[in-house]
Structures are given as structure tokens and as C-alpha cells.
Design brief:
The protein is mainly β and 69 residues long. The protein has one domain. The protein is built from 1 helix and 4 strands, in the order βαβββ. The protein has one helix at 10-19; strands spanning 2-8, 33-38, 48-54, 60-67. Strands 1-2-3-4 form a 4-stranded antiparallel β-sheet. The protein is globular and about 35 Å long.
Amino acid sequence: MYHYQTFKGADAVEFCETKLELPENFDMSAVVKVEIFSASPPGDEEDFCEARVIDAEDVVLCVRRMYSF
């Protein structure tokens, strides 16, 4: 997988709220960053992506897989 993009702070929380289907009881206050990984090199238009939601201790809280975000 190729690292594609990282969202941090408020941008990470907004990305979680708007793009990821997280459970209602998910603790958004723990979200520090979201890292997006791509199955293909940068430049491919339609792509399989993986979003990793990470807390302050670099623990992955959840992973969501999707086609192009």
C-alpha cells in the first residue's frame, strides 16, 4: 500500500464525520489523525483506499476500506 494523505486534528475529525461510517458511540475526542493509504501508485483515478484512524499514542482505532474517497 502507498501512503496517500494524512489528515490531522480538526481536519481528521471532520474527515471521520463526513467520509467514514463510524458507529455513533465512537469517541471522536480520541482521534488525532487519519492516514489514507492507496493500493495503487499516486495518479490512478479510481482506487481502493484504506483509512486508518489513529489516536495520540499512534494506536490504530479503526480501519475503513473504500473506493476513492
